[in-house]
């Protein structure tokens, strides 16, 4: 099982190294999803028999993160969809992208995505689930932005990543919270601890986080707008990610967590409201689209809303309806997407106002799309009919809300069947424009996959009972009553049949009466400034502006501004603490008495410092600096540090000489800043100096520890045979430090030497 | 005396930062040297100063006798003085170099991106 899940990742790496663009070689990758499909199918008898197959692999047991995979009905349904539709998409993509030299990279991304998706639906560990969840976001980023040269494509990829990634971040918070409260990350264990979770005070918070993750991934309102944008992706990607798999990850999560967090009014009503609103909003929006993929994108959002609504209702009937509808939708929507891709590929247009009569050049495609459209509308003898039936049955048995919900679903279903007709019939009906007359016929490998999907829609429509074992297993995994009768084609004449009829006929009437037109799209565009999309884009723009402003403000390129910022910040932090520590009185008795020559030196130093600060002569400033240095040298002499005095004396002399040699060639000081700035700088420096004094004074109040000094003093002669303790420390006890110091000095000397010797070329001197 | 030294160190730091806030590169360097001196004195001061003997073992003895200054701050300062000289020497030469190439020692004139040069 581990190999099955991770094989996609392994092959993703492998595909990168093999350029598969030659002839039939590019169909090789399709064997990966095909073999996985066969592998999962072999488990079908056990799973439909009600078993849950567990595979445990320890990964980070100390943190409770293990690669535990659980294959139950729900996981099986999704795995079969991922690998089954995956196989068809792989074949289709190989034909669709035949003229691209990057095809091996495409399959690499696609395999990574498939592996991530499989891992997501099979993981029993929430943290592992989260990792795969993020992996789908990242791999889909590459797939959506596949046309790297188009700006719109890159932008929509970033938008999709931002929305789903942001949701993933919140999901992580939810997962950690659930793991914390339930003291396990295993979904099985959490299901057992469901009551504890629901009674916990942070239950609302958990729901918020989990919903944020699921709604962003499954494009619920108000996060739906990334999905129409993601239609910039190549059509195989749209068909795979945006009909069958990735957008259903959120649905999967809600399904999976239904037994853990569900059953509370908050859970049910939130899902019903969000799902219902999304359903209505998106199905209404799809009326106004003229881009074929736009229609499909919005009808997909509507379908996702419908599934969320059904999960929200939370009865066994609604779970059954949701499970069946997931399968129905995947079959017909993937088929419609693939047909759209064929049209786009052949005539390079997806504009519904222009396409017509294409049945004359691509009959098999027209048939496949037509069947998919019929399944979408819910005509009897298609799988869609069974789905619609179950949906109405679920909404009608919700008690108080039955009438409202049924009405809502009826309206939305009429609009959705219209969208299906538009996408499945419109491009093929009517007269063929002359411009398209000499278009090449699409090959079998292009129309084969959608045709197979359409045939499956019909097959399950005729024999719905065949899907019963699987969907019943899904219902039991979601916490519904598993003892369900088999799905039936004919329920007799009743209200549900009437509703189905109204849907089919209503959608068809709408199709006959309405013509897609650009004017309608422009009408809708007027509301764009109020949409969630504009809000999010505005938010992103605002964040960009703020960070730009701050960057310019902080990184302004002036050294003194950086210093002032750093020092001011330091001062604020230090003053905060130091204010409380200011002593009331100072005890002078413990200090060394001041002698006359101390005072003379201090006076010399202070006056030299002030001269240095305010002089405009370079010579004076260098002399003042030397006075400061030599005074310190004298202080060292008085306080028992002859070595320091000697060093300081040498160094100061050298510095003065160097300054003299070089600075006299520089221009005299100019008055560059005005008085106000000087006063501001003076104040900041004075406070800084004061704070340093304060710190020095406070340190002096603490007793010093002499243990280390004692050690050196006692052992200087006995261990190192030296009598000058300072020298012994430098050259013996800390000898390697001194060696490194000498190295530093050597490097500095080399730098000085090379810079003095370097001749300035004319090009450098501008 | 300690109190006066505390004030002196504060003055050295204050004047050093003030000089570093100026636009001239020479003043920046002078400010750096002043702060360096202040830091050396600070280390010296917090290691307890006294007017005692230097930490040198007298003839015929094998350990320090009487009151002596703490050798550790001295060792640290000695290192610091030498290293800061390396820095100063390099900075002075670099400064000359920058002046020869750009014709200015005004830091604001040097404020340009790589692309502008």
TrEMBL record, chain A:
<feature type="transmembrane region" description="Helical">
    <location>
        <begin position="492"/>
        <end position="513"/>
    </location>
</feature>
<feature type="transmembrane region" description="Helical">
    <location>
        <begin position="239"/>
        <end position="255"/>
    </location>
</feature>
<feature type="transmembrane region" description="Helical">
    <location>
        <begin position="594"/>
        <end position="615"/>
    </location>
</feature>
<feature type="transmembrane region" description="Helical">
    <location>
        <begin position="682"/>
        <end position="700"/>
    </location>
</feature>
<keyword id="KW-0813">Transport</keyword>
<keyword id="KW-1133">Transmembrane helix</keyword>
<keyword id="KW-0050">Antiport</keyword>
<feature type="transmembrane region" description="Helical">
    <location>
        <begin position="738"/>
        <end position="756"/>
    </location>
</feature>
<keyword id="KW-0812">Transmembrane</keyword>
<dbReference type="GO" id="GO:0006811">
    <property type="term" value="P:monoatomic ion transport"/>
</dbReference>
<keyword id="KW-0472">Membrane</keyword>
<feature type="transmembrane region" description="Helical">
    <location>
        <begin position="73"/>
        <end position="93"/>
    </location>
</feature>
<feature type="transmembrane region" description="Helical">
    <location>
        <begin position="444"/>
        <end position="466"/>
    </location>
</feature>
<feature type="transmembrane region" description="Helical">
    <location>
        <begin position="158"/>
        <end position="183"/>
    </location>
</feature>
<feature type="transmembrane region" description="Helical">
    <location>
        <begin position="203"/>
        <end position="227"/>
    </location>
</feature>
<protein>
    <submittedName>
        <fullName>Multisubunit sodium/proton antiporter, MrpA subunit (TC 2.A.63.1)</fullName>
    </submittedName>
</protein>
<feature type="transmembrane region" description="Helical">
    <location>
        <begin position="653"/>
        <end position="670"/>
    </location>
</feature>
<feature type="transmembrane region" description="Helical">
    <location>
        <begin position="399"/>
        <end position="423"/>
    </location>
</feature>
<dbReference type="InterPro" id="IPR001750">
    <property type="entry name" value="ND/Mrp_TM"/>
</dbReference>
<feature type="transmembrane region" description="Helical">
    <location>
        <begin position="128"/>
        <end position="146"/>
    </location>
</feature>
<dbReference type="Pfam" id="PF20501">
    <property type="entry name" value="MbhE"/>
</dbReference>
<feature type="transmembrane region" description="Helical">
    <location>
        <begin position="622"/>
        <end position="641"/>
    </location>
</feature>
From TrEMBL, chain B:
<feature type="transmembrane region" description="Helical">
    <location>
        <begin position="28"/>
        <end position="46"/>
    </location>
</feature>
<protein>
    <submittedName>
        <fullName>Monovalent cation/H+ antiporter subunit C</fullName>
    </submittedName>
</protein>
<feature type="transmembrane region" description="Helical">
    <location>
        <begin position="72"/>
        <end position="95"/>
    </location>
</feature>
<dbReference type="InterPro" id="IPR039428">
    <property type="entry name" value="NUOK/Mnh_C1-like"/>
</dbReference>
<keyword id="KW-0812">Transmembrane</keyword>
<dbReference type="Pfam" id="PF00420">
    <property type="entry name" value="Oxidored_q2"/>
</dbReference>
<keyword id="KW-1133">Transmembrane helix</keyword>
<comment type="similarity">
    <text>Belongs to the CPA3 antiporters (TC 2.A.63) subunit C family.</text>
</comment>
<keyword id="KW-1003">Cell membrane</keyword>
<dbReference type="InterPro" id="IPR050601">
    <property type="entry name" value="CPA3_antiporter_subunitC"/>
</dbReference>
<dbReference type="GO" id="GO:0005886">
    <property type="term" value="C:plasma membrane"/>
</dbReference>
<feature type="transmembrane region" description="Helical">
    <location>
        <begin position="6"/>
        <end position="21"/>
    </location>
</feature>
<keyword id="KW-0472">Membrane</keyword>
